[in-house]
C-alpha cells in the first residue's frame, strides 16, 4: 500500500449545517483542511473569512480555568503506578456519553472554590515569606534583654544598633572606652564576620560615638518593633505556626476536591474538542448563507466522506473531488502498510516524510532493520525477554495506537535477535555452552564478511530503488547514467579487490576490471551533464567519481554489525565469568543471581539502545542517501487530540 492516494475536494454547504458537519468530519478522522485565506483566487474574492471570535475566546477562557483546576488537583490525586495505568488505559466515551457527563458536572463551582483556595494559599505564602524575612533580621538580636521601645524612650541618652566588621570590633571597643566616658556597649552576636552591637551614649557624646562608629564601618539596623527581640521572635513563630495550620486545612479541603479530577478531565476534553472545531473554521470562507471548505481526503475514503456529508446536508450541498496531481508539493502524505511494516513507519518519519511523488521507503528498510538489529543484539535469551515483554504489553495493557506500534516494533525485532543468537550460540552470553553454527570468538572474519555482504546488498538495493523511480517516471537515460554506471563501477571494483580471496580466475577478474573502467568512464562523462560547458561537464563527472570513496566509507560502516554483536556477547560472557569466580556456593547463589539478573538486564538495555541508534544510522546515511530525499508534508487529519480520554471514532 505504502503512500496512500489523495484526492482534493471542494465542498459548498449551508452555514446552518456547518457545526454538525464539522462534528461528523472530526469523528471521521480522514480529512485535512486547506486554509483558503492563503489562496489568491479571484473566483472566491466575493467570500469572506468569518471567525466566531467571541465563542472561541470564551471556550479558551473556560479551558484555562479547567486546566488551572486540574493543575491544582494534580498534587492531591492518588498516583497510579505506571503498570496499573497501562492496564487500566484511558476512559473511552462516545459523543453522547461525553455530552451527558459534561452536563452533569458543575465545573464552574469547582473552579471557583479552588481559585479562592489558591488565593488564600498565596496570601499565606506571602505572609510566611515576610515572617521569615523578619526572623532573619531579628534572630541575631535575640540576646538583647531590653525592648526596642525602652531604647526609643531614652531621654538623657541615645543609642545605636547595628553591625561592624568583626576585625574592627576590638579596636572600636578600645576607642569607645577611651574617648566616650558616658557610654555602654554590648556585643550581642557574631555571625559570618559581623559583630552585632548595641551602643548607648549620653546625649552630649552622641556625635563623638557616631563618628567612631562610622570610622569602623558601622551599618545601622532599622527596627520597627517596640518589644524585646525575643518576644517579637516568639510572636512571629506563633503566627507562623497558625499560618501553617491554616495552610494544612486548606490543602485538606483541596484534597477533598480531588474526587472531581476525572470529571474535570472530561470537561477539558469536551472544551478542547469545541476549541478545535472553532479553530477549524479559520480555514473556511463564507458568504451570508454558504460556507466553502477545501481540503484533502484519501481517495479510498471518498465514498465514506460523501456519506458523512449526506447524513448532515441531505442533498443540499455541492462536492467536487479530484485526484491529487503526483507532482503537487502541497499534497499531504499518509502512509499505509501491513501490520509488520507499519511498526517501522516511525523510523521513516523520524528521518522525513516522503514526498507524494516518491515511494515509501518503509517496506524496503524493514527487512534490513530486522536483520541488522538481530545481528547487533544477537542473543537468544535477550530475544526471549524482548518477546515476552512486548507480547505482555500488547495482551495486558490498554495501549493507544502509537504505543501498540512501539510494542509490535520490539516484538518483531525479538525474532531476528533469537535467530542470530542461536547462530552464534549465545544464550545469555555463554551460560548454557550450546555451540552455534558460528563461533563469535573464533570466526570474526566470517562475521565481518557477512556484515560487508549485507552492506553491499543494501547499497545495491538502494541504487535499484533509485533506478525503479527513474524508470517509473520515464527517465530511462537517467536510470542508466545515475545507477547503471555505479552498478558497473562497484561490481567491477568488488570483484577486482576480492577476486583473489574468493579464488576467482584471473581471466574473470580481468573482465571485471574492464567493467569497472567502463562504469568509471560513464560516471565521468554523464554525471556533469546538467552543466553547460564541456569543462564543467567533465569537472562534474570527475567530482562524482571521487564519490567512490564515499561508497567505501559506507561499506566500512557496516562493520558495526559485527562490532556491536561481538561486544554484547563478550559483555554478557564477562558477567557469567564473574559469577563463575564466586567460590562460596551460598555467595554464588545469592550474589550470582543478583549479578546475572542486573548484569544481563543492563547488557540488554545497552545493546538494544545501541542497536536501535546504529541501525537507524545505517538506514539514514548509507541506505537513504542512495535514493530517498523526503521533505513531504505529513497528512494531519482533523480529529480530536485527546489527552485524557479515548473518544470513539465513527465507523
Automatic annotation (TrEMBL):
Principal cellular location given in the protein's record: membrane
Subcellular location: Membrane
GO cellular component, one term: vacuolar proton-transporting V-type ATPase complex
UniProt name for this protein: V/A-type H+-transporting ATPase subunit I
An annotated Gene Ontology molecular function: ATPase binding
Sorted UniProt keywords: Ion transport, Membrane, Transmembrane, Transmembrane helix, Transport
Organism placement in taxonomy: Bacteria, Bacillati, Bacillota, Clostridia, Eubacteriales
GO BP, sorted A to Z: vacuolar acidification
Family, per entry: Belongs to the V-ATPase 116 kDa subunit family.
Entry's transmembrane regions: 368-394, 406-424, 444-463, 484-502, 508-526, 538-556, 562-582, 589-613
Amino acid at each position: 500500500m505504502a503512500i496512500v492516494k489523495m484526492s482534493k475536494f471542494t465542498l459548498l454547504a449551508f452555514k446552518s449545517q456547518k457545526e454538525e458537519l464539522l462534528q461528523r468530519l472530526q469523528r471521521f478522522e480522514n480529512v485535512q483542511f486547506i486554509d483558503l485565506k492563503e489562496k489568491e483566487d479571484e473566483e472566491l474574492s466575493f467570500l469572506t473569512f468569518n471567525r466566531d471570535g467571541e465563542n472561541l475566546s470564551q471556550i479558551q477562557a473556560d479551558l484555562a480555568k479547567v486546566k488551572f483546576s486540574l493543575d491544582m488537583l494534580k498534587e492531591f490525586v492518588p498516583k497510579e503506578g505506571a503498570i496499573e495505568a497501562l492496564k487500566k488505559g484511558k476512559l473511552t466515551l462516545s459523543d453522547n456519553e461525553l455530552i451527558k457527563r459534561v452536563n452533569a458536572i458543575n465545573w464552574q463551582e469547582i473552579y471557583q472554590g479552588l481559585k479562592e483556595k489558591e488565593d488564600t494559599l498565596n496570601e499565606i505564602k506571602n505572609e510566611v515569606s515576610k515572617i521569615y524575612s523578619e526572623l532573619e533580621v531579628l534572630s541575631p538580636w535575640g540576646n538583647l534583654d531590653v525592648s526596642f521601645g525602652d531604647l526609643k524612650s531614652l531621654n538623657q541618652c541615645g543609642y545605636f544598633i547595628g553591625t561592624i566588621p568583626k576585625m574592627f570590633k576590638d579596636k572600636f571597643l578600645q576607642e569607645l572606652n577611651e574617648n566616650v566616658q558616658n557610654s555602654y556597649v554590648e556585643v550581642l552576636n557574631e555571625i559570618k564576620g559581623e559583630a552585632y552591637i548595641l551602643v548607648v551614649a549620653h546625649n552630649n557624646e552622641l556625635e563623638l560615638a557616631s563618628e567612631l562608629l562610622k570610622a569602623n564601618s558601622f551599618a545601622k539596623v532599622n527596627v520597627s518593633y517596640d518589644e524585646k527581640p525575643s518576644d517579637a521572635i516568639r510572636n512571629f513563630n506563633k503566627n507562623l505556626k497558625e499560618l501553617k495550620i491554616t495552610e494544612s486545612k486548606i490543602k485538606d479541603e483541596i484534597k477533598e476536591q480531588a474526587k472531581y479530577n476525572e470529571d474535570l478531565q472530561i470537561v477539558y476534553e469536551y472544551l478542547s474538542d469545541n476549541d478545535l472545531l472553532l479553530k477549524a473554521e479559520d480555514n473556511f470562507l463564507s458568504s451570508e448563507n454558504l460556507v466553502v471548505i477545501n481540503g484533502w481526503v484519501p481517495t479510498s475514503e471518498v465514498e465514506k466522506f460523501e456519506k458523512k456529508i449526506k447524513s448532515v446536508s441531505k442533498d443540499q450541498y455541492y462536492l467536487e473531488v479530484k485526484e491529487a496531481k503526483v507532482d503537487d508539493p502541497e499534497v499531504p502524505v499518509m502512509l499505509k502498510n501491513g501490520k509488520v511494516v507499519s511498526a517501522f513507519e516511525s523510523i521513516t518519519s523520524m528521518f522525513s516524510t516522503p514526498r507524494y511523488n516518491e515511494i515509501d521507503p518503509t517496506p524496503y528498510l524493514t527487512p534490513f532493520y530486522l536483520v541488522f538489529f538481530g545481528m547487533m543484539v544477537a542473543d537468544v535469551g535477550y530475544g526471549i525477554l524482548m518477546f515476552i515483554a512486548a507480547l505482555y504489553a500488547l495482551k495486558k495493557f490498554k495501549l493507544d495506537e502509537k504505543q501498540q506500534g512501539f510494542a509490535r516494533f520490539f516484538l518483531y525485532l525479538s525474532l531476528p535477535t533469537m535467530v542470530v543468537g542461536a547462530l552464534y550460540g549465545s544464550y545469555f552470553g555463554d551460560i548454557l555452552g550450546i555451540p552455534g553454527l558460528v563461533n563469535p570468538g573464533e570466526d570474526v572474519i566470517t562475521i565481518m564478511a557477512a556484515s560487508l555482504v549485507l552492506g553491499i546488498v543494501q547499497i545495491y538495493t538502494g541504487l535499484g530503488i533509485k533506478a525503479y523511480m527513474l524508470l517509473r517516471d520515464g527517465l530511462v537515460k537517467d536510470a542508466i547514467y545515475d545507477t547503471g554506471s555505479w552498478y558497473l563501477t562497484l561490481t567491477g571494483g568488488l570483484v577486482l579487490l576480492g577476486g583473489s580471496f574468493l579464488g576467482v580466475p584471473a581471466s574473470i577478474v580481468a573482465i571485471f576490471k574492464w567493467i569497472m573502467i567502463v562504469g568509471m568512464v560513464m560516471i565521468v562523462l554523464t554525471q556533469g551533464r546538467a552543466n553547460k560547458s564541456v569543462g564543467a561537464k567533465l569537472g562534474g563527472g570527475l567530482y562524482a567519481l571521487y564519490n567512490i570513496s564515499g561508497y567505501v566509507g559506507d561499506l566500512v560502516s557496516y562493520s558495526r554489525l559485527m562490532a556491536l554483536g561481538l561486544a554484547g556477547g563478550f559483555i554478557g560472557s564477562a558477567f557469567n565469568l564473574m559469577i563463575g569466580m564466586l567460590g562460596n556456593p551460598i555467595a554464588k547463589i545469592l550474589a550470582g543471581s543478583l549479578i546475572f539478573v542486573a548484569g544481563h538486564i543492563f547488557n540488554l538495555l545497552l545493546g538494544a539502545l545501541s542497536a536501535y541508534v546504529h541501525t537507524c544510522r545505517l538506514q539514514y546515511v548509507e541506505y537513504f542517501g542512495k535514493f530517498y530525499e523526503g521533505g513531504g508534508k505529513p497528512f494531519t487529519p482533523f480529529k480530536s487530540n485527546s489527552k485524557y480520554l479515548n473518544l470513539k471514532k465513527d465507523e
